[in-house]
C-alpha cells in the first residue's frame, strides 16, 4: 500500500484481521455447536467442542414428521433452479429491449421499471396473495417460481441494461448487415458478451431465493413441500422442546451450496459487478 509505513500496514492488517474474526465468530460457534451434544451446547464457553458427536447430523438428516432433510434440499433446488432460469431469460430479454432497441414510450416504461425497485415488498404482499389464491396456486411452488419468468425483479433488469449499454453498438450494425434479426442478435451476440452480468444475476438469485423464508412461509403449508428455510424452522415447533443441535447441524449443511456456488463463479461475479458499475 502506497503512502503507508510498514508499522501502519501491520496495524491496519491486524485491525482488518480482528474485524474478520469478530464477523466469523457466530459462524464458528454454529459449526462447533453442530458437533456438540444438545445438552452441552449452551453450557460450553470454549472455541472447541468439549464433547464431540455426529448425532446432530444423523438425526437432523432424518428430518421431521417422516420427511427427510434431503427432501427439503430437493425442494429448494427445484425452486431455486426455476427462479434462476426464469430470471435469466426474462430479465435479459427486458434488458435487451431497453438497452438495444427503440420503441414508443421506452423512457416511460424504463422509469416505471425503476420505480418498481423502490416499491416495498410488503405493499404488494396482499394483492399478490389474493391473485395466487384465486388462481389456486397457494400451497405449491408456483407463487415462488412463476413471477421470475415475467421479469418482476427490476434490479436485475437494471444491472443487465447497464452492462449491455457498454457493448459497442457497432456490433449490432455489423450483425444486421450480415442478416441477423433482433432475436439472432440477442442470442448470438448480446447474450455471450453479457455472461458476467448473467452470472452475477444467477448468484444473487440463488442466494436470495435459497435464504428466502417469508414468501415460502406465506405460500407453503404442506410439509412435503418445505424448503430448507421451512425445514430448519420445523426443528423448533415439531415438538415441545426445540432440537437446537439438529437445527445447527442442518444450518451448516444448508450453507454449503451457497458457498460452493459462490466460489465456483467468484471470478465472473467480481467482473460482472465491476463492469456494470463502470459502464452506463
Number of helices, where a helix is a run of at least 4 consecutive DSSP H or I residues: 14
Shape: globular
- Low-confidence spans: pLDDT under 50, at least 5 residues? none
Relative helix content: 55-70%
N→C terminal distance:
30 Å
Helix and strand composition category: mainly alpha
Mean pLDDT: 86
Number of strands: 0
Succession of helices and strands: HHHHHHHHHHHHHH
The major β-sheet equals: none
From the alpha carbons, calculate the radius of gyration and give it in angstroms: 23 Å
Strand content: under 5%
Please sum up the structure shown.
The protein is mainly alpha-helical. It is built from 14 helices and no strands.
Report on the architecture of this protein.
With 280 residues, the protein is mostly helical. It has 14 helices and no strands. The chain is globular. The mean pLDDT is 86.
Brief descriptors of the model:
14 helices; globular; mainly alpha; 280 residues; single chain
Topology:
Layout: H1 6-34, H2 55-61, H3 69-100, H4 106-117, H5 125-135, H6 142-145, H7 154-165, H8 170-177, H9 182-193, H10 195-211, H11 214-219, H12 228-237, H13 244-264, H14 266-278
Helix pairs in contact: 1-13, 2-13, 3-7, 3-10, 4-7, 7-14, 10-14, 12-13
Amino acid at each position: 500500500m502506497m503512502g503507508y509505513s510498514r508499522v501502519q500496514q501491520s496495524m491496519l492488517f491486524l485491525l482488518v484481521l480482528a474485524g474478520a474474526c469478530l464477523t466469523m465468530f457466530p459462524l464458528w460457534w454454529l459449526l462447533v455447536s453442530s458437533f456438540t451434544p444438545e445438552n452441552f451446547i449452551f453450557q460450553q464457553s470454549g472455541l472447541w467442542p468439549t464433547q464431540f458427536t455426529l448425532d446432530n447430523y444423523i438425526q437432523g438428516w432424518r428430518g421431521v414428521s417422516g420427511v427427510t432433510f434431503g427432501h427439503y434440499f430437493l425442494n429448494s433446488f427445484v425452486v431455486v433452479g426455476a427462479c434462476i432460469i426464469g430470471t435469466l431469460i426474462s430479465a435479459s430479454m427486458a434488458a435487451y429491449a431497453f438497452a438495444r432497441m427503440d420503441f414508443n414510450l421506452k423512457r416511460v416504461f424504463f422509469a416505471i421499471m425503476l420505480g418498481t425497485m423502490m416499491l416495498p415488498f410488503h405493499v404488494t404482499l396482499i394483492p399478490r396473495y389474493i391473485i395466487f389464491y384465486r388462481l389456486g396456486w397457494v400451497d405449491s411452488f408456483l407463487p415462488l417460481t412463476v413471477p421470475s419468468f415475467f421479469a418482476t425483479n427490476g434490479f436485475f433488469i437494471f444491472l443487465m441494461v447497464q452492462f449491455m449499454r457498454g457493448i459497442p453498438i457497432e456490433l449490432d450494425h455489423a450483425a444486421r448487415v450480415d442478416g441477423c434479426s433482433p432475436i439472432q442478435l440477442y442470442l448470438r451476440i448480446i447474450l455471450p458478451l453479457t455472461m458476467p452480468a448473467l452470472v452475477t444475476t444467477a448468484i444473487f438469485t440463488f442466494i436470495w431465493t435459497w435464504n428466502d423464508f417469508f414468501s415460502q412461509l406465506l405460500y407453503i403449508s404442506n410439509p412435503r413441500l418445505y424448503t430448507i428455510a421451512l425445514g430448519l424452522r420445523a426443528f423448533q415447533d415439531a415438538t415441545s422442546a426445540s432440537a437446537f443441535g439438529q437445527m445447527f447441524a442442518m444450518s451448516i449443511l444448508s450453507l454449503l451450496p451457497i458457498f460452493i456456488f459462490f466460489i465456483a463463479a467468484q471470478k465472473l461475479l467480481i467482473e460482472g459487478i465491476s463492469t456494470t458499475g463502470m459502464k452506463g
